[in-house]
Amino acid sequence: MWGISICPPSAFGLTTGTIVQFESSKVKVDWSSINEKYKGWSVRDGLIIQFANIPLWLLIGIYFEAVAPKEYGKSLKPWFLCLPSFWCSRKPQKQQEKKRDRSIIYNVDNVDES
Length: 114
Known about the structure:
By secondary structure, this protein is mainly alpha-helical. It contains 4 helices and 2 strands, in the order αββααα. Strands 1-2 form a two-stranded antiparallel ribbon. The longest helix is centred in the middle third of the chain and has 25 residues. It is elongated, with a radius of gyration of 28 Å.
């Protein structure tokens, strides 16, 4: 049951079915009966899976957002998570290089101070 419950609608359906069966047999569903199982599934199992599905599907969505072709911008390669360039950033520039780059961009040497 845990394998099929990776799909959120299946987990919701299993949990709802368990609640319906408990309520129809006059077993009140509350914190004291949350661990009672019906056909191998409890309300606690459903809650755990639903909360575990949130970060799982969020990460899958972020991945596909980065990989899917876009009208504007650049899509990443599907294997971008395996590339060292994704995990290791470039070394920071030294302070002197930054000053030199700024002076070239803004042409600081030729500016009048009057």
